[in-house]
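Appendix B: complex inputs.
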Amino acid sequence: MVKKLGILFSGGKDSMYAAWLAKKEGYEISCLISIVSENEESYMFHTPSIRRVEEQAKSMGIPLIIVKTKGKKEKELIDLERAIKLARKDYDISGVVSGAVESVYQASRIEKICNKLKIECFNPLWQKNQLELLEDLIKNKFEVIVVGVFAYPFDEKWLGRKIDIKFINEIKKLQEKYKINVAGEGGEFESFVLNCKLFKKKLIIKDQKIKGSKNSWRMDIKLE
Amino acid sequence: MKTILLIDICNEKLGFYEFVKPVRDILIKNNVNVFIKHYTRLKKKDLDEANSVIICGTTLYDNKFIEDINKFKWLTDFEGAVLGICGGMQIIGMIFNGKLCRGTEIGYYNEKFGKNFLGLMGKQEVYHLHNNYVDFSNLDFEIFAGNKISQGVKHKKKRIYGVLFHPEVRQKDLILNFCNLK
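Resulting structure:
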């Protein structure tokens, strides 16, 4: 049986919720594994600020492994394998958890790496209804904000918005009208978790910088 | 109304979310009566209560069900319909004297169904996640897809079906067609 797990961690809602499910089911989260991609269009990885992920790891009291990648298609998988190997060596993990929901591209590549390394791979959000996922976040008191939007008709006004009932109601309307995926699974938006049951201390935003144009906006945040 | 029993073969608790819950969600969304039992806690009354059974899959290294294969002997006497998914198909094969073989397939693969198999026909892109399979070639099963590795099979005399791929990802209708079998 698997006891110690490494979480493939972007700092967003999916990987954080997957981590929480692992903890809830009695597994030990031995480390977080973050791949920081230089390529903002990476197929595999979000591109969080290293600093933000570090703050989350600190609040959870869980060691963090950061591996940088140039984010070139397929080559970034070599960097992911390197990161998982490092986690196995340093933290004795025998399994990895991902926040993959729908992407076979993402899930199957992680599965292949784990299978090669003879460790287990868990995708506890796999095929989960997107609306149910957002509702579960609220029900379980996850404080999540939007830190990036990348699709029509989003604009900069969505940055910093909390995922709450009002957010769900509005995004449901966008889904009906523009086929937006309500959980941002198609890369429509990027999220960041400020607080959840895994945190010892809530993260507070000290400063924020917004950049972008038209329907593609990012918010860089500084935390207290 | 029909009642479907989902059998959970995951010994890792996180496996439930990935292999059992998605099947349950499809059934609930389509107003199918469903209840779940782990194979180690399965009772005769559970089987009596169910019209049909679906044995769900599990993660790549969670294979304790192979050691526990004797817990599935009920399959030879069960009179309802059975669908085995991935690990569930391997269980069906082993119970009906098939040999467990090593063979890894992960990700999307194209499979060709020569004739109608629970609504599937022709070329299908299916999602695979397995390190093992059962050789059904000399068993009392008809093979609907797969050359070297059987992908879709049905017992020649019983309503027992097996798929090596995961229909809960791309072929959700197959699961519903199975539930609607007479």
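The mean pLDDT of chain B is 96.
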